[in-house]
Amino acid sequence: MTTVSARQPFAWDPAADLLSGPVGKRVTQCALSRVCGGCGEPLGRPIAFVGTPLERDRNAFHFPPMHAGCAADLLARLDALEPGSWLSVQTAGFEFVRANREDLDRRPTFEPNSLL
Questions:
Q1: pTM of the model
Q2: Is 26:16 a contact under the CB 8 Å cutoff?
Q3: What is the total count of domains within the chain?
Q4: pLDDT tens profile 26-40
Q5: What residue numbers bound the domain in which 100 lies?
Q6: How far is CA 114 from CA 12, 39, 91, 111, in A?
Q7: Alpha-carbon distance 107 to 114, whole Å?
Q8: Cβ neighbour number for residue 97 with a 10 Å cutoff
Q9: How far apart are alpha carbons 106 and 91 in whole angstroms?
Q10: Is the CB of residue 1 less than 8 Å from the CB of residue 31?
Q11: Is 49 exposed, middle or buried (0-12, 13-18, 19+ CB in 10 A)?
Q12: Is residue 99 included in any domain, yes or no?
């Protein structure tokens, strides 16, 4: 397992700001191929998600699944930009949920099924 160092994470646009979030097609690729959004390598367990406290409370994360080490590295980088705004959770599995036509937020979400 590789960690996300100073380079842009796998699911993010290399030319974009880290806070702009991941690219939609890469998010879907991470979900369907079960690869890490940080390093692009296959996922094992535990699976980690990085998000806001609101995402944790709703159990619906927008950032793709990651290895625990990759998530910790991304969390540290995000915390340097916006201290205290981000957290990480670990799970054994997740559901990938695509937005409905009626949803205001059209981004897909990841719903961990058992937090560790």
A1: 0.89
A2: no
A3: 1
A4: 999 999 999 999 999
A5: 43-112
A6: 26, 23, 5, 9
A7: 22
A8: 13
A9: 24
A10: no
A11: buried
A12: yes
**What SS3 class is residue 58?**
helix
pLDDT(43) > 90: yes
What is the maximum span of the chain, computed from C-alpha positions, in angstroms? Answer: 38
Per-residue pLDDT band at 2 (split at 50, 70, 90): very low
The answer to whether residue 3 is domain-embedded is: no
Residue 73's pLDDT is 96
Cα of 108 vs its chain's centroid, Å: 11
Model pLDDT for residues 86-98, shown as the tens digit of each residue:
999 999 999 999 8
Q: What pLDDT score was predicted for residue 3?
A: 47
SS3 label, residue 6:
coil
Alpha-carbon span 21 to 12, nearest angstrom: 6
